[in-house]
Write a structure and sequence with these properties.
The chain is mainly α and 70 residues long. Helix content is 74%, strand content 0%. The chain is built from three helices and no strands.
């Protein structure tokens, strides 16, 4: 019985980034499911969510400070 090689944390981050965009082939998704460790997926998902929210907050602050919203 051969085991599939484990994915690295970098591969997990890439898979989470693709899922945030909603662009992923079914074959790539199946490969990710077979290789990605659940703990890596949770950490990458939480980090991705935090970065996404921080970017949105910084964007809103920049727009409000520049007076574009007037």
């Amino acid at each position: 019985m051969s085991e599939s090689p484990q994915g690295s944390f970098t591969q997990t981050v890439k898979a989470v980034a693709w899922s945030f965009l909603g662009i992923r082939k079914a074959s790539g998704q199946a490969e990710d499911i077979a290789r990605i460790k659940p703990a890596h997926l949770i950490v990458a998902g939480v980090l991705g969510g935090v970065v996404f929210v921080m970017v949105l907050v910084l964007l809103v602050r920049w727009v409000v400070a520049s007076g574009v919203a007037q």
